[in-house]
Design brief:
With about 300 residues, this protein is an alpha/beta fold. It is built from nine helices and eleven strands. The protein folds into two domains: about 15-30 and about 85-295, von Willebrand factor, type A domain (Rossmann fold); about 40-85, no CATH class. The longest helix is centred in the last third of the chain and has 25 residues, at about 245-270.
Length: about 300
Amino acid sequence: MFADRQPRSFLDTGALSRLAAVPLCSRRPMQGNVSGRHTSPHRGASVEFAEYRKYVPGDDLRRLDWRAYGRSDRFYVKEFEADTNLRLCVVFDTSGSMDFGSTGITKIEYARKLAGSLAYLASQQGDAVGLSCVADGIVRNIPPKRGPAHLMNVFDILEQAQPSGATQLVSVLHELAETIRQRALIVILSDFFVEPELLRGCLQHLRFRKHDVSMLQLLDPLELNFNFRRPMRFIDMEGGPSIFAEPNEIADRYQKALQKYADELLAVVLESAVDFHPVTLDESFEQVLMRFLVGRTRTKGVQ
């Protein structure tokens, strides 16, 4: 563990030590500025063979494959995968709806645990970490960098983030697609209370820019089960009008609308080839992260 100047309530040292056994992998080639453990789109020095190509004057003669020459009477050069570091960009939803929670923890507190843990794990393996707090715009943003001092800045901003305002996630993601210049692993932590069809364009925009995109959707069990027993006033936490309703009268319509939303969202993420993880707040965040890390290990190198 690193020597932090203050305890962080959202970091669990025991969980981090267990999670560190599984690397944080990218599913797409990354463009970093130092040697690392992630595949690069460029050729370089590595133990993993990539391909043969024909020799051209100026190539390093030490890379000639003499066995290939013996078989074909032509000169071929061995090319190897280059390994580099990645840029982890965490998109942290701080809109008003993230302040909800019925299990003793709110969505933003849960997201803070996920974001802090991922930032630490990435930093420990030499990767750059960045953070964008978003609501009705980009509230706070620090570009990806490496080093313990920068990681402390990320933790400070996570600790200070407070949920408020409306969600403008679609426009924010379009903006980030243009402003994050180099390929990055972009992890979005949100409840995604957005029309799925509107998400399609920004997810494809991110993929077009060669980013590796992961979505972790945080929902409270009450939002999924709608397990209310008496008349309730439902308040829009992002500033909309409140609604007084009898839950028994609207439960069926609510469940149908929720299922329709879930089906449409799943169709969008599958079409966009995005790494999608639905999460409920009553799950162990360590198990969620372990599932996330192991899943990415299995799909490492998928284009």
